[in-house]
Task: inverse folding
């Protein structure tokens, strides 16, 4: 079955440092979505990437979809304490698969 | 309401009891999804509905789990003869349509604890 792995599993950064999480699939993806889950909260949709090599930006967040459509990344520039949470990538095959998630802690 | 509503928000029950979890999706959303999330873990896909139909039930962990949706709206997830390993947060999501390009909107979940 389809597997989506994320690295790292955990990341601690000082406020102001950059952060990147990577999502890797064993198969080619039709699209990829990114979600953020705050501690104690539910996942919230951030963005969707569809095209090979696509890059999208939301303020300090930059999302990339690999040329082969098997990997994706989320980069946060100059992290803030409000960025704390777990970031999940998600994709669809026969079912809807969420990655294992990267938990981000920002130290003030 | 404006968002996905799940009830109860918390459920504590004894091992062996049956539980029923409810999800009320966003009005007009035809697709509905159920996930399970254990503490500190990712989301485990359980089942999805397109309208009242569930095309793929293979994500359900065992035959103790069942789900239904009526009227293309409210869905219930039923767990029979609960076990301690069923303890988790059960999340429901809905999207406007079924398909890979649809963002999912999540409810706050039901936290299930089996004693």
Result:
């Amino acid at each position: 079955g389809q597997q989506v792995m994320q690295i790292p599993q955990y990341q601690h950064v000082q406020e102001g440092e950059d952060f990147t999480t990577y999502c890797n699939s064993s198969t080619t993806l039709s699209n990829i979505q990114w979600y953020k889950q705050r501690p104690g909260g539910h996942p919230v949709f951030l963005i969707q990437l569809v095209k090979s090599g696509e890059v999208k930006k939301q303020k300090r967040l930059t999302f990339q979809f690999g040329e082969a459509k098997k990997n994706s990344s989320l980069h946060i520039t100059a992290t803030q304490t409000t960025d704390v949470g777990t970031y999940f990538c998600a994709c669809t095959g026969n079912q809807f698969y969420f990655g294992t998630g990267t938990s981000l802690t920002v130290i003030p | 309401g404006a968002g996905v509503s799940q009830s109860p928000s918390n459920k504590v029950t004894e091992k062996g009891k049956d539980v029923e979890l409810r999800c009320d999706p966003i009005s007009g959303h035809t697709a509905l999804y159920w996930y399970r999330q254990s503490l500190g873990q990712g989301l485990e896909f359980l089942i999805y509905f397109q309208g009242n139909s569930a095309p793929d039930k293979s994500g359900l962990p065992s035959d103790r789990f069942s789900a239904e949706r009526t009227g293309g709206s409210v869905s219930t997830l039923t767990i029979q003869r609960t076990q301690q390993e069923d303890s988790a947060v059960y999340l429901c999501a809905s999207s406007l349509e079924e398909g890979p390009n649809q963002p999912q909107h999540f409810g706050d979940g039901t936290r299930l604890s089996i004693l």
